[in-house]
Amino acid sequence: MSHNKINYEEKKLQEKKERIKENRIKKLEDKIQQLEKNIKKLDEEMKICSSNFEKLNELYSEKNKFQKILDYVLEEWIVLSE
């Protein structure tokens, strides 16, 4: 195989990896937005239900679940964005 052909194939492979990475970053950013929106909505619901301890506890648990997922997604986004 010629040197030019190897360089071309390496370049194409690198471009493919970069596209995959960019697509993943975009998906993570979309996921981050959705999770932040969900958390904000839960915060608003928690304010409304502040006197209903049972409902408040349920909302708090759900918010924590979203927050843990958000933390994980943010961590992956940071690594890929470097």
Give your account of this protein's structure.
This protein has 82 residues and is mainly α. The protein has one domain (3-81). The protein has two helices and no strands. Helix 1 (3-48) runs antiparallel to helix 2. The protein is rod-shaped. The model has no long low-confidence stretch (mean pLDDT 94).
| Residues in β-strands, percent | under 5%
- Average pLDDT across residues? 94
Tell me about the biggest sheet?
none
**Main structural class:** mainly alpha
Summed up, the helix count is 2
Give the ordered list of helices and strands: HH
- Report, as a whole number of angstroms, the end-to-end distance: 34 Å
The structural domain count equals: 1
Low-confidence stretches: none
What is the 3D shape?
rod-shaped
Instruction: State the helicity in percent bands.
Output: over 70%
Number of strands: 0
Question: Could you provide a short overview of the structure?
Answer:
This protein is an all-alpha fold and 82 residues long.
Q: What is the element layout, followed by pairings?
A:
Layout: H1 3-48, H2 53-81
Helix pairs in contact: 1-2
Key terms for this structure?
82 residues; mainly alpha
